[in-house]
TrEMBL record:
GO terms for molecular function: ATP binding; tryptophan-tRNA ligase activity. Belongs to the class-I aminoacyl-tRNA synthetase family. SUPFAM superfamilies: Nucleotidylyl transferase. This is Tryptophan--tRNA ligase. Its EC number is 6.1.1.2. One of its GO terms (biological process) is tryptophanyl-tRNA aminoacylation. CDD domains: TrpRS_core. It comes from Stomatobaculum longum.
């Protein structure tokens, strides 16, 4: 128990949205507060963001503070979690370089997440090498801190699998230094991959179909008003479909029994609401109103806390600086062990030098 370690992170390519929240952020806060982990490491992956935003470093630079504010506002606590910036830990680059020896081009090409993202970014013709190999750098991020547990959305599973392979290969060739991590994904499908407000498969900064944690109450309400539902559900009396109905998917991810008591007491549960919808006689407007109430309740304290942190931006940078220093210490320890295992510790190995000196002396005699 006491040796369990968490690592997660996000790319600073925009503010964080409710997909990040249900997929990973809210779980991190629970784990951070559970007392079951020796350490919680939370990384702003700026170097990874640059792999496909290399021509727009200002975007990455401006979004570091946004992601940090989002972290603090959801309840990640710098007293309990190490919040740090990837590029400030040069040890990660060194690890990436060594791990690159253990991964084939064919294996990277098979990674379904990378495949998908290459398509999304129209990179088919000319993929930057850095982008193509980011799963290796992600393995460095995870293993540098000996993370056992990585709370992520579903799209990250292939990354964790790739990391596990690298760990096994490293440990079997060199020495058992690295720890095989496990992904921790949400138990419900809606939270594992929250769709966009447009009904598209994934809410994603790159697709512009997001509700951001920092959106004000009016924006959230407006986003839900125009949210994709069932295009065949024209009259209230029509039977409605749940399949692909974004409003119900969001209710899966966000609603809890107490929300029904508070805002919709005529239904005992989401199942009852669904049953009425499919039977006919329940209008989209009513369901959307309920979702709005549920989401505002969840987001209001987050917005409030954000406002407080926004008042002292230098203090937020100080948190990141301290966190980065701490992260660097830990990563340096792992790198040291890795180099020992790989036998590239020449200057520290007095036995190596002594033995060779002896050998050459004898040969000269
Ligand atoms: P980008 O489009 O720049 O890749 P993104 O929105 O996919 O941005 P990431 O920073 O790549 O965000 O992902 C950070 C974390 O949030 C990962 O653990 C990922 O699995 C999770 N996540 C991202 N989008 C969703 C979503 N729609 N539903 C559930 N989890 C998500
Ligand atoms: Mg992503």
């Amino acid at each position: 128990m006491a040796d369990k370690i968490i690592l997660t992170g996000d790319r600073p390519t925009g503010k964080l949205h409710v997909g990040h929240y249900v997929g990973s952020l809210r779980r991190r806060v629970v784990l951070q507060n559970s007392g079951e982990y020796k350490r919680t490491m939370v990384m702003i992956a700026d170097a990874q963001a640059l792999t496909d935003n290399f021509d727009n470093p200002e975007k990455v630079r401006q979004n570091i503070i946004e992601v940090a504010l989002d972290y603090l506002s959801v309840g990640l606590d710098p007293e309990k979690s190490v919040l740090f910036i990837q590029s400030q830990i040069p040890e990660l680059t060194e690890l990436t370089f060594f791990y690159s020896d253990l991964v084939t081009v064919a294996r990277l090409q098979r990674n379904p997440t990378v495949k998908n993202e290459i398509k999304l970014r129209n990179f088919e013709a000319d993929i930057p090498v850095g982008f193509f190999t980011y799963p290796i750098s992600q393995a460095a991020d995870i293993t540098a801190f000996k993370a056992t547990t990585v709370p992520v959305g579903e799209d990250q599973l292939p990354m964790i699998e790739q990391t596990r392979e690298i760990v096994r290969k490293f440990n079997s060739i060199y020495a058992p230094v690295l720890v095989e991590p496990e992904a921790l994904i949400p138990s419900d499908a809606a939270s594992r991959r929250l769709p966009g407000t447009d009904g598209k498969a994934k809410m994603s900064k790159s697709l512009g179909n997001c509700i951001y944690l920092s959106d004000d109450a009016d924006t959230v309400a407006a986003r839900i008003k125009t949210m994709y539902t069932d295009p065949e559900h024209l009259r209230v009396s029509d039977p409605g479909h749940l399949e692909g109905n974004t409003v119900f998917t969001y209710l899966e991810a966000f609603s809890r029994p107490e929300h029904f008591e508070r805002y919709l007491p005529e239904y005992a549960s989401l199942d009852e609401l669904k049953a009425h919808y499919t039977r006919g006689g329940l209008g989209d407007v009513k369901v959307k109103k309920f979702l709005t109430a549920v989401m505002q309740e969840e987001l209001e304290p987050i917005r409030k806390r954000r406002k407080e942190y926004e008042r002292d931006i230098p203090a937020v940078y100080e948190i990141l600086k301290k966190g980065s220093e701490r992260a660097r210490e830990i990563a340096a320890e792992t790198l040291h062990e890795v180099k020992d295992a790989m036998r590239i510790n020449y200057f520290e190995d007095s036995e190596l030098i002594r033995e060779q000196a002896e050998r050459y002396r004898k040969a000269a005699e």
